[in-house]
Design brief:
Layout: E1 4-9, E2 13-19, E3 29-35, E4 40-46, E5 59-66, E6 70-75, E7 80-85, E8 90-96, E9 104-111, E10 125-131, E11 134-139, E12 144-148, E13 151-158, E14 166-173, E15 176-181, E16 185-190, E17 200-203, E18 211-216, E19 223-228, E20 232-237, E21 246-249, E22 255-260, E23 268-272, E24 277-282, E25 309-313, E26 322-328, E27 331-336, E28 340-345
Antiparallel strand pairs: 1-28, 2-3, 3-4, 4-5, 6-7, 7-8, 8-9, 10-11, 11-12, 12-13, 14-15, 15-16, 16-17, 18-19, 19-20, 20-21, 22-23, 23-24, 24-25, 26-27, 27-28
Length: 351
């Protein structure tokens, strides 16, 4: 697979990186969120490709200070995004751009210190998920907060949702969320129900391995992929969640993030604390994805899934963790602890 890698030194450790959605064209803006700085920040970057000049690198066009480490960042739409903080706060921000004027990042709503321990100490907000304008946040305090981007107030707080730190969360549908905790428990909550208890609980694996990230399939939300601290990837069909459908021994370090390609959901991308970024793709002539006119989904294949997948290393292994990645069309970006960001252009997603 031939692709170009652009590395840019940014002088800060990057914990989150996300393409700005552009539904009509290739995205060329993206945001980064830093961590482990005295003053962390959210930055908006521009990467304008030039066929005549291969030595083109992204450059920052806007910056906003961020209290605490950026623990997660996601766009709600092309202009609005949400970030969470190691200081237990959640922030709604908007990119404001006028013709002929450089864009700026404005703070719209701050849900301050909504995660805290019973003794009053601040708890980091570890992750969040979005569904339309709804936001579900989780933290080390074992609490779930339900927010809405149109409402300054917390819509609902589920105290003691878990007895230990919740690491990750994803919306399954508008009324259901899936969480993963420190001890390897996956729990489904009906957020309409008055009780603060999960409707279903199951284990990631036989041992208490912590999930670090959860990602649902773009078109089939009952298909969920979990990446854990030991580098494994577990695939669940939540219509029958007694046992996982597939288990892949993947990275040497913890799986930091997982991304399905939004337009080609049989393509999967992962990055790890071992410094890898991988592209998982069905073998040529193998099973294609549901939604492309074929009968079976490769991720739910009953036979040994390893025999159906090719795994490509998208860039040389780093000696520092790759914390975050995102994909848009044939471009992958990733942010790392070596104080650099990488843009991988020309990834082959069409088989």
């Amino acid at each position: 697979m031939t692709h170009n890698i652009h590395g840019t030194f940014v002088s800060e450790k990057i914990n989150k990186i996300r393409w700005r959605p552009d539904f009509m064209n290739d995205s060329h803006y993206f945001i980064t969120g830093s961590w482990d700085n005295y003053q962390n920040s959210i930055k908006l970057w521009d990467f304008q490709e030039n066929e005549e000049d291969a030595e083109v690198y992204p450059f920052p066009v806007a910056e906003c200070p961020h209290k605490g480490d950026v623990t997660e960042a996601k766009f709600l739409n092309a202009d609005t995004f949400v970030t969470t903080s190691s200081l237990g706060s959640v922030h709604l921000m908007k990119i404001v751009s006028e013709h002929g004027i450089e864009p700026v990042i404005e703070s719209k709503i701050n849900w301050e210190y909504i995660h805290n321990f019973p003794n009053g100490e601040i708890s980091p907000c570890t992750s969040f998920s979005t569904y339309d304008n709804d936001v579900a946040t989780v933290g080390e305090d074992g609490t779930i907060n339900l927010l809405n981007s149109q409402n300054q107030n917390v819509v609902r707080k589920i105290d003691n949702a878990d007895s230990c730190s919740i690491h990750c969360v994803t919306f399954l549908k508008h009324s259901e969320i899936l969480t993963g905790n420190l001890r390897g428990h996956l729990k489904i909550f009906d957020i309409r129900a008055p009780k603060n208890e999960p409707t279903t609980t199951f284990m990631l694996s036989g041992t208490q391995v912590s999930p670090l990230c959860l990602q649902h399939h773009p078109t089939q939300r009952h298909l969920v992929v979990a990446g854990d601290e030991e580098g494994s990837i577990t695939i669940w069909d939540l219509r029958q969640n007694t046992y996982p459908v597939n288990l892949l021994d993947a990275h040497e370090g913890g799986v930091a993030e997982i991304r399905f390609h939004p337009d080609q959901p049989d393509q999967l991308f992962t990055c790890s604390s071992a410094g890898d970024v991988w592209h998982w793709s069905p073998k040529s002539g193998g099973i294609a994805s549901v939604g492309l006119g074929t009968a079976e989904n490769v991720w739910l294949a009953s036979e040994t899934i390893k025999n159906k997948l090719d795994v490509f290393t998208l860039m040389p292994k780093l000696h520092k963790p790759i914390n975050s990645l995102d994909v848009n069309r044939n471009k992958v970006i990733c942010g790392c602890d070596n104080e650099a960001i990488y843009l991988i252009n020309g990834v082959n997603i069409f088989k």
